[in-house]
Amino acid sequence: MSIDVTRVGSVATVTLNRPEALNAFDQAALSDLLRSVRKLGADQTVRAIILTGAGDRAFAAGADIKAMAKFNPQAARAFGALGQAVTRAIETVPQPVIAAVNGYAFGGGCEIALACDLRLAADTAVFAQPEVSLGIPPGWGATQRLPRLVGGGVAAELILTGRRVDATEALRIGLVNAVHRPDALLPAAGELAAQIAGNSRSAVAAAKQAMAVAFGVDVPGGLLTELDAFASAFGTEDQREGMAAFLEKRRPVWP
Ligand code: DAK
Q: What transmembrane ranges does the database entry give (predicted)?
């Protein structure tokens, strides 16, 4: 798979580009995606990232089943670890990552979307965690992230049955933030990214970092993390400029 990266202003779009296999991930594709996400994460001129799939059929149809069919446990562990590294990279880059789900998001494809901060779907999108129908459990985080997003009961039903969820249901259960016509999906993701990019970079990164531990610790622990992030913001230029701009009834000019 080639991973295409394009830029419009401070917004980067990463496109999973292997449409002949519905953008399924093999080892090379995962390594390329990991490299691209890390590179964008380190680029201070990038303020938001959109992740989407090439073509009009799939975001990603999951891990490459042809490649996985030959794995022994050792190869499976390495492949699982690489997929998890991709999802952690998406989760830990300072910029918000928006999944623009333009078709099938199955298995590892759905899990990559789950690691993103926000998910928009085309009305043609279909989600599933069908791993149990292939004789394996999910391996790139669905068991951890899906319950946090849609609740334990719904996640258990989807993971244990492997059934498909269309865009309307995905919106209802909170799996996606919004649904758009296919031709309106990328423009909507661009608008959302631009809205985020118009805010303070450091405040957005701090909020993303604090939300990342919302479910990893108990509520009192999470509140302490939030308090640290909140207090630290008060040593920054962004805080001074943001509040000064509000009080002076003008738009902020971020440093
Ligand atoms: N891998 C490889 N090729 C795939 C693929 C996939 N996941 N999905 C589709 N393709 C290929 C098809 O083989 C076909 O290629 P050709 O035969 O033409 O060469 C081409 O893409 C078009 O697909 P179809 O002809 O099947 O298209 P349809 O419209 O009929 O069906 C579909 C679309 C998405 C319903 C169907 O392709 C499908 O069911 N695909 C499989 C989806 C799936 O089950 N995905 C989950 C994969 S499992 C772990 C590590 C990782 C994972 C788990 C554990 N550990 C280490 C613990 C991750 C697991 C997964 O992601």
A: none
**pLDDT > 70? residue 180:** yes
Separation of alpha carbons 222 and 241, rounded Å: 27
Q: CA dist 96 to 124, 161, 174, 205, 238, Å?
A: 24, 31, 18, 8, 18
Q: Architecture of 2-197 per CATH?
A: Alpha-Beta Complex (3.90)
The domain limits of the chain are 2-197
Lining ligand 1 with CB less than 6 A are: 21-22, 24, 61-66, 76, 79-80, 83, 104, 106-108, 130-131, 134, 136, 138-140
Residue 116, token pair as written in the block: 């993103």
The answer to whether residues 122 and 103 touch, using CB atoms and an 8 Å cutoff, is yes
Whether 167 and 175 have beta carbons less than 8 Å apart is answered as no
Cβ atoms 129, 146 nearer than 8 A = yes
